[in-house]
Amino acid sequence: MKGFDSKVILAKSVEGPKRNRAKMRIRNWILGVATFLFLATSVILGTNFFGGILSYNHLAVGEIPAAEKAIFRKMGFLPNAKRVDAPNFFLRTRDGKSRTLQQDRGKVVLINFWATWCLPCLREMPAMQRVFEKFKNDGLQVVAISVDQGRSNVVRTFAKNLNLKFQIVLDPEHTAKRAYQVKALPTTYLIDRVGRVVAYGMGARKWDGEAAFALIESLLKEAG
After folding, report:
1. What is the helix (H) or strand (E) element at residue 140, kind and residue range?
2. What letter would DSSP give residue 174?
3. For the whole model, what pTM was predicted?
4. CA quadruple 129, 125, 193, 101: dihedral sign
């Protein structure tokens, strides 16, 4: 083959990975510096990473009373220093009826995003039913938004087997999931009586314990 030199080919094969590793180190360093600058600038300016829904402002956290923060912290929630309106949704219940968030105006609403394939979601459902039973007459509403796609029968069967009485709505196209910027399951939002986001948190929780009861009671005591 004309122009073929095994020494040149060998040299290039050795030098290539070295150059690639060097480029990778430089690229990672630049990315790290850019990320640090972005985070630092956002904190200084009070930027909200999650958009308008999660208006948690690190500079304004002092506005939340210490006792109130402790109640949220015990349940692993991040409270909003400045409450913003929760996005309304238009979804179908497991019985095919229309359901919106505005229907629960005047109540404290626990919105829980879940799926039948999410084991942590399934484990917390019975506890959610118990907290709902305890506070439903005081103004608590639980709305569990299923993000299952094409599994409405599975959702109905699951709810029936666990004798769940709170509202379960279907979000197969993930319109509510996107509106609430849900990144993991389960994710829970707490909405006050006037329809504002109080706090949010990711992961399953013990809803039938004293910490949960104290949190719900504190929200129910707020004026609507």
Report:
1. strand 140-146
2. -
3. 0.74
4. negative
